Structures are given as C-alpha cells and as structure tokens.
C-alpha cells in the first residue's frame, strides 16, 4: 500500500519510533494525527512536520489504551483530513521487571502493549470492512518473537501483541485489511535505557541484553523499514534482519535455545 493521500493515526508519536513514523508518513504524502500521552510532545512533532509540509499533521494528547480516547483520535482525523486509512498502534511501555511486578504493573502493561491494539481494531476494522480496505500496523518487539531478559511484563505482552496482529492478518487479510507487525531489537529511544537507569538488577540486564544483541538503530531507520514493508504489504517487519535467524533457531530446537538464553543472561550479570 502506498501512503500518499492516506490518513494515518500514530500513537506514541511524540518521539522515538512514533515521531519518526509520523515524519516519514507526511514526507510520503500522508496526513497524520500525531497522538501521545504527552500532549506537548505530540504537538511539537506535528509542528515540526507542518513547518516543512504545511497542513500535513495535527497533534493530540491521548491515552492510546483508552477506547474513548481512540475514538476521539478517529473523530479528529476525520474532521481534519477524512476517514482513517492507516493506524499505527505504536505506543508502548517497558513495564516492571521480574516477578515483583504488581497487579497494577501487569494491568498497565497489558492495557498499553496489548489492549490498546485490540480496542483500536474493534473501532476501525468494521469501518474498513465497509470501505474494503485499511492498514493496521502493530509495534511489538523482537521480544515478542524471542523473549526479554529481565522483564516478564514486556516479554509476555509483546508476545501477545504479535499474536493479535497475526490473528488480525489471518482473519481479515482476504477482506482488504492489511496488517503488519513491527519487531525491532534495540532502537535509540528513551524506552531502551529505562532498565539501565532504574538500577534494578533485572532492569539493567534487560537493557544490556538488547544493546549487546545487535546494532542499536535510529528511529528514522526503523520508520524507513516500516514504510518499505507496507509498500510490499509484508506482515513481519524486522529492521534487525538477524532476528529472523534467531527465531528460526528457537523453533528448530526450543530446549537448546532456552539453555542458550540462560547462558546469555548469566553472562550479562555474572553472579546475579
């Protein structure tokens, strides 16, 4: 699918991957609603886009996990630009590390990393079926295909996000609904370094696991990979190509892969 003349909503668009996606979409001729829990950040990204391409973006503060907030974003897009063609469920959180994560920690991670995608799809897919087309892009993580050392909340919810995107693709892929799932490893965003900054043993391990597993990409590189995949309507978007080989190793011999991951974890923080 070409993004030119399409209307898009990008959640978590106030910076990082979301901000880069919004910029690349506008550069490709799309109209973009930039949404973020941090309204000032969303407005700043939209202003930056409009400085180069006037009238291409509008910013809004929104909780991407809240159904009413998602509906308001859809209404905003329709009033400013027209019916929504593309939805980027990009907002995410790292979550609390280890088994010490509380019920509220789990609820928040599930809401932001999974239910936000489900709630958006529930609002948009029926409209897209009537129109005969639409594109849903889910930002998950390589952790959703492999795992995340240190953070159970992140690993579990990202696995679930991959599973939901996969289900959407299977269920509606022959009815005009396109679905892609983004699964990067390390990207140079604030989210990547939250574990290291926390000082928690498992949090530190989580950051070191990602930064030592491969190149840390810039958000703009990831955004380019997303638009290239959308052009080809590919489901799995892997900005780090080695993730596919890692995933194959996991499937080929699960127990061997698990042993290898335990060794990897031990090497990150010896004695921990």
Automatic annotation (TrEMBL):
<dbReference type="GO" id="GO:0016491">
    <property type="term" value="F:oxidoreductase activity"/>
</dbReference>
<dbReference type="InterPro" id="IPR036291">
    <property type="entry name" value="NAD(P)-bd_dom_sf"/>
</dbReference>
<protein>
    <submittedName>
        <fullName>SDR family oxidoreductase</fullName>
        <ecNumber>1.-.-.-</ecNumber>
    </submittedName>
</protein>
<dbReference type="InterPro" id="IPR002347">
    <property type="entry name" value="SDR_fam"/>
</dbReference>
<keyword id="KW-0560">Oxidoreductase</keyword>
<comment type="similarity">
    <text>Belongs to the short-chain dehydrogenases/reductases (SDR) family.</text>
</comment>
<dbReference type="Pfam" id="PF00106">
    <property type="entry name" value="adh_short"/>
</dbReference>
């Amino acid at each position: 699918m070409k993004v030119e003349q399409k209307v898009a909503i990008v959640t978590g668009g106030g910076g990082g991957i979301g901000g880069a996606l919004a910029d690349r979409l506008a550069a490709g001729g799309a109209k973009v609603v930039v949404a973020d829990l941090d309204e000032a950040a969303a407005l700043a990204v939209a202003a930056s886009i409009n400085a180069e391409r006037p009238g291409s973006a509008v910013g809004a503060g929104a909780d991407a996990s809240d159904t009413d907030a998602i509906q308001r974003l859809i209404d905003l897009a329709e009033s400013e630009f027209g019916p929504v063609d593309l939805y980027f469920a990009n907002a995410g959180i790292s979550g609390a590390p280890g088994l010490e994560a509380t019920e509220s920690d789990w609820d928040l991670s599930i809401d932001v990393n999974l239910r936000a995608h489900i709630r958006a799809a529930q609002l948009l897919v029926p409209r897209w079926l009537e129109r005969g087309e639409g594109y849903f892009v889910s930002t998950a993580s390589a952790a959703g295909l492999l795992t995340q050392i240190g953070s159970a909340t992140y690993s579990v919810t990202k696995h679930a996000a991959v599973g939901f995107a996969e289900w959407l693709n299977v269920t509606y892929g022959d009815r005009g609904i396109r679905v892609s799932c983004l699964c990067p490893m390390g990207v140079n965003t604030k989210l990547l370094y939250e574990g290291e900054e926390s000082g928690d043993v498992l949090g530190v391990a989580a950051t070191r696991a990602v930064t030592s597993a491969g190149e840390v990409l810039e958000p703009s590189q990831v955004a380019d990979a997303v638009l290239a995949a959308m052009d080809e309507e590919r489901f799995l978007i892997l900005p780090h190509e080695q993730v596919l080989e890692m995933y194959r190793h996991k499937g080929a011999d699960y127990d061997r892969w698990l042993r290898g991951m335990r060794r990897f974890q031990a090497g990150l923080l010896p004695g921990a």
